[in-house]
Amino acid sequence: MSTETFETIRYTADVVVTTTDGCVLLIERGWDPHKGQWALPGGHVDPGETSRAAAARELAEEAGVYATPEELSQVGTWDAPGRDPRGRYVTVAYQLTVIPGTPAEAGDDAVNVRWWPLDNLPPLAFDHADIIRAAARVAR
Asked: Does residue 51 form part of some domain?
């Protein structure tokens, strides 16, 4: 008889949207954890959905920026056990480059959306600063 305990793991996708002139799109979170902090657009992968499709859907729902899943480039996977205070969350991050002036509008779980210079970011929720740094390296 085994005494193993299995942990619940939640699957998410995040998107680093950068402009060709060095800005990144962030949303202001409207819910806990980290309510009021800035974060990348992203969220849960729905049943039957790929993480890439979830990333494109969440980007449209939270920031009003539309891209096809094929336009998103995978940056990597973040799975550190303590990265989210709600429990074990594993995220696959994607990157998209757009032109300056691309319109964005807060929706769904976001209360605000803003383009931030990559060299002057606010404090970020979760490990999103690490994800942005990795995406910046990949985009070079």
From this structure: yes
User: Which domain CATH number covers 92?
Assistant: 3.90.79.10
CA 15/CA 52 separation, integer angstroms? 9
Residue pLDDT, tens place only, 57-96:
999 999 999 999 999 999 999 999 999 999 999 999 999 9
Q: Tell me how many domains the chain contains.
A: 1
82, 79, 93: which is closest to 131 by C-alpha? 93
Residue-number span of the structural domain to which 109 is assigned: 9-139
- Letter string b/e over residues 103-116, b meaning 16 or more CB atoms within 10 A of that residue's CB: ebebeebbeebebb
Tokens of 74: 């995978």
113 in a domain, yes or no?
yes
The Cα–Cα gap between 110 and 121 comes to: 18
List Cα–Cα distances, 35 to 9, 28, 38, 119, 124, in angstroms.
Answer: 22, 8, 9, 23, 11
Position 25 confidence tier, pLDDT thresholds 50, 70, 90: very high
Q: Which two tokens stand for residue 10?
A: 């939640």
